[in-house]
Amino acid sequence: MAISMIGEKVKLLRMDMGLTLDKLAKFASVSKSYIWDIENGKVPRPSAENVFAIANALMVDTEFLINDDYKLNGDDEAKIFTKKYLSLSEDKRKSINDLINLWSTK
User: Fold this and answer.
1) Phi, psi values for residue 47, rounded to 5°
2) In CATH, what number is assigned to the domain containing residue 89?
3) By residue range, what is the domain housing residue 37?
4) What are the b/e assignments for 12-45, b being 16+ CB within 10 Å?
5) For 21-74, how does the pLDDT look when each residue is reduced to its tens digit (9 = 90+)?
6) How far lies 74's CA from each of 60, 71, 79, 82, 98, in Å?
7) What total of structural domains would you count in the chain?
8) Which among 69, 32, 70, 87 has a CA at the least distance from the CA of 54?
């Protein structure tokens, strides 16, 4: 896989999840500058350990980041949704729960 593809996937997932560089770096236990470098294709050979940590922080399989042919599956999408949901305020989570309850009664 091209390094820039890893970076593009990391950036798209990070932004889709509403994470800042700082938050993703904290979740993955790497530096903010390392995440920026990954996203911008500046890391020639990211270590397996760091790719694994970033994938875990983004709640996807490492394979998704390193394999161009890998597609997100339902479990990956559910993990991403859960992470987004948990990052919302209590009021917004309650609103989502109310909507789900409304839809499930019809």
Assistant:
1) -70, 150
2) 1.10.260.40
3) 3-104
4) ebbeebebebebbbebbebeeebbebbbeeebee
5) 999 999 999 999 999 999 998 988 899 999 999 999 998 888 889 887 777 677
6) 11, 10, 9, 12, 23
7) 1
8) 32
Number of H helices, E strands in the chain: 7, 0
Question: Are the C-beta atoms of residues 79 and 17 closer than 8 Å to each other?
Answer: no
Q: How many residues does the chain have?
A: 106
The token pair at 87 is 């990052």
Buried b or exposed e, range 67-94, using 16+ CB within 10 angstroms = eeebeeeeebeebbeebeeeeeeeeeee
Handedness of CA 64, 67, 68, 71 (dihedral sign): negative
d(CA 106, CA 97): 15
